[in-house]
Amino acid sequence: MPDLAQLQPSAFNCEGGLVLNKSTFLMQPGEALELRNFEPDIEGGYRRINGFSKYVSVVVPFTSSETEKVLMVASFADIVLAARGTSIYSATPGGSSWTSRDSGRTSAGKYSFERFNFDGTDKIVVVDGVNAPTVFNSSLAATDVSTTAAVGTKFVASFKNHMFYAGKSTAKQEVIFSVPFDEDNFTSGDGAGSIKVDDTIVGLKVFREDLFIFCETRIFKLSGTSSTNFAVTPVTRNIGCINGDTIQEFAGDLIFLGPDGLRTIAGTARIGDVELGTISSNVQSIFNDNLSSASEFDSTVIPDKTQYRIFFTKSSVGEGQSKGVICVMKGQNFEFSELRGIRPACTDSFVDEGSVLVLHGAYTSGYVYRQESGNTFDGEVIFGRYRSPDLTFEDPGIRKHMQRVIINYKPEAAIDADLLLRYDYEDPDSARPTAYALDSEDVVAIYGTSVYGVPIYAGASQPLVRQPVEGSGFAVALKVHDGGQTAPYSLKGFQLEYQLGARR
Fold first, then answer.
1. What CATH number does domain 4-41+385-503 carry, 3.40.50, 2.60.40, 2.60.290, 2.60.120?
2. Where in the chain is the domain with CATH 2.60.120?
3. Separation CA 407–CA 392 (nearest Å)
C-alpha cells in the first residue's frame, strides 16, 4: 500500500480540443492527441456525442435504384421535404409514409433551397442545377419559376426582398435576381437584373447586410438595397471556396471550406472592413487527407452548442468509417474533434421556436435522420476515443510510478468505458496495463462543482472515479475508449497521483 502522503498529484482540465499540429512534447495537458466522437463542450470538457435516429420510419421512395442518394432534406411548414430520384416528397415527423409533391423531374444532383416570406406567406424555393426552380407554399403546392434564365441554377438566396439565383452551367459567373417581393418575375424594368463576376460561382450566402458570392478562387460581396444601387466589391481575390455546401453562418460569422482548411469571414462595424482567417490549423492534417479525395462535402450547424460540423463523403468508404470534423467556438477560440460514423448526402439545420432540428439524408440507405437523437447511430455503436498528450509532469528525466487516476466526469446516465494507460510514448517494450473498466450503473444526472484533492465529493453521487492503476515510466498517456450504447457523458478533467522514482 503506497504512502498517500508521499504521492505527487498533477491535475488538468479537459480543454483545447484535438491538436494534431504539435509535437506531443509541446502540447498542453488538457489538449487531446485523439478525440473521436467527443465534442468540445461549451460547458467545459469533452462530451461523447449524441447519436442519430430515423426522422421518418420508412425510406424516401427511389426512382430506379435502392442506393439512390437523398438529394435534399429540408424542414418546412412543420413537415420535412426530401428529394430522391426524380421526385420531391413530404412527410410528417415520425411518420410512416412519404407523399409525392413534385414528380417527373429530370434527374439532377444535390439540391439547394431557401426559406422565405415575401407576402406574409411562408414559402421555400428549391434548385438542383437542372430543373426550373420550384416554389412550395405552406400548403405544399408546387409552382415552377417560369423564366428561362433561372432554369438549371444551382444556388439560391433571398436578399433585400429579391430572389437571387446562380450556378447555371451556361452562365457560371452570373447571378440573376428577381423583382422585389416576387421570386418569379424577372422583368428588368420592374427591378430585376443580373450581375457578373470574373470567377465560377460555388455558393451564395446572406450575412448581415451583404450577399456574399463565393467562387472557386475569389469571394465577392453584393451590397445595396435594390437594382438601382446594388454593387459588387471583392472581398478577396486570393482565396476561394472549395464547396458551397460548407458555407454556414456560425458564431456571428460565416464559415466555409477554403483550399487550406476552414476559414471565416469576419466583419466589423466599419463598412467594407472584412478579414479572412484560417481557423483549422490544429486539425489541418484531417483536411489535407480529405480535401482531394472526398467525393462531396456537407455541413451543418448546431447553434445551441455553438457547433459547426463538416462531413467528408467518399463513395468508396462506408458509413462506419466516414469522417468529419466538429468545430466549437469557446470564448474567442475554436476547438476541434473528429467525427466518425456519419455519412450524409445532404443536411439541414433549422431553429423553430427555440428548438434546433438537425437533419441529414442518407448517402445510400434512403432514410432521413435526425442528429442529436438517441445514443447510437441508428442502432450502430458510437465508438468514442480520447487520448491525452504524453505527460511528463515537467520532468521527463524522472520515472513516475503511477498509483491512482481520478476522473472528473459528468454522467447523463450509466456509463460504460475503459481507461487505459500507456507509458513512454507507447514504447512496445514498456508496461501495458490492462484496461480499467469505468462502468457505473448507479450514477445520477446531477453535477456539482469539482474540487481536486477533496476526498469526498457531492455525497453519494460520486462524480469522481478513483481508479487505482499500475505501471511506471518517464511519460504517461491516458486513453478513454467508449464502445457501448450508453448515453453521453463528459470528461471534465483528470488528476494523476504517482510516486517519484529514479532519475535516468
1. 2.60.120
2. 4-41+385-503
3. 18
Q: What is the pTM of this model?
A: 0.93
**What pLDDT digit, counting tens, does each position of 73-131 carry?**
999 999 999 999 999 999 998 899 999 999 999 999 999 999 999 989 999 999 999 99
Strands (E), 78-139: 79-84, 87-91, 99-102, 112-116, 123-127, 134-137
Assign domain 108-240 to its CATH architecture. 7 Propeller (2.130)
Would you call 416 exposed, middle or buried from its count of C-beta atoms within 10 A (0-12, 13-18, 19+)? middle
Cell of 233: 466589391
Tell me the β-bridge partners of 322.
none
| DSSP state, residue 391 | B
Identify the residue whose cell numbers are 456539482. 448
- Every domain range in the chain assigned CATH 2.130.10.10: 108-240
pLDDT digits (tens, 9 = 90+) for 293-328: 898 999 999 999 999 999 999 988 999 999 999 999
- At residue 113, what is the residue type? F
How far apart are the C-alpha atoms of 222 and 224, rounded to whole Å?
Answer: 7
What three-state secondary structure class fits 141?
coil
Question: Letter for the amino acid at 111?
Answer: Y
The residues pairing with 336 across neighbouring beta strands, listed in sequence order, are 327
In three state form, how does the secondary structure of 7-73 look?
Answer: CEEEEEECCCCECCCCCCCCCCCCCECEEECEEECCCCCEEECCCEEECCCCCCCCCCCCCCCEEEE
**In sequence order, what E strands does 198-291 have?**
201-207, 210-215, 219-223, 231-236, 248-250, 253-258, 261-267, 274-278
- CA atoms of 122 and 288, how far apart (whole Å): 41
The string of pLDDT tens digits covering residues 249-268 is: 999 999 999 999 999 998 54
**CA 272 to chain CA mean position, Å:** 29
